[in-house]
Amino acid sequence: MIRILLAEDQTMLRGALAALLGMESDLEVVAAVGDGEAAWRELQRHRPDLLLTDIEMPGLTGLELAQRIARHELPVKVVVITTFARAGYLRRALEAGVRGYLLKDAPAEQLAQALRNVHRGGRAIDPQLALEAWGEADPLSDRERQALRLAGEGLSAAEIAQRLNLSHGTVRNYLSEAIGKLGVGNRIEAYRLARQKGWL
């Protein structure tokens, strides 16, 4: 039996995915949660074989969760399921050790087969995205990305500093570095461009 932890913030989709996977005789959803921090706690508790996660979630994103799993060397394989057909996301996912990257509009049987393949040690990557992933490189550092994501949510530099436990000046530096690297006029344009490219 392949034991799966499901992390998806949309309640209806989370329920549908859990029900779909539960219909497969060799797949078992051991827990289904709606945010990254809850997923991290359930990973410790259940020690599943696979984590099936969305990218955009409250708390930790799916990619930050994959990075944390890699840092702690947990023996769980990560499969991302997302609406974001963006090469930048895929590139970052692969760098974080993700073994599968599928789009939410893929057929249900393709998802089950991809999970089995990853469990056996293979990869399951959307082929068109795989070709695009090695185009334009992501210029942002992790800290610039975090600051820019929070700026895009409407937080001021002072609020970002408080959230990330950094000084106000350091946050201003990260934001201005990101703006410079992306060649735009302000933090909102930087946020929009980085999001469009899949770098957030």
Automatic annotation (TrEMBL):
InterPro entries for this protein: CheY-like_superfamily, Sig_transdc_resp-reg_C-effctor, Sig_transdc_resp-reg_receiver, Tscrpt_reg_LuxR_C, WalR-like, WH-like_DNA-bd_sf
Highest taxon, organism lineage: Bacteria
Response regulatory domain boundaries: 3-119
Transmembrane spans: none
GO biological process, one term: phosphorelay signal transduction system
GO molecular function: DNA binding
Keyword entries, A-Z: DNA-binding, Phosphoprotein
Keyword Phosphoprotein: yes
Residues where 4-aspartylphosphate is found: 54
HTH luxR-type domain boundaries: 133-198
Presence of the UniProt keyword Phosphoprotein in the record: yes
Annotated coiled-coil segments of the chain: none
Protein name in UniProt: LuxR family two component transcriptional regulator
Organism: Thermomonas haemolytica
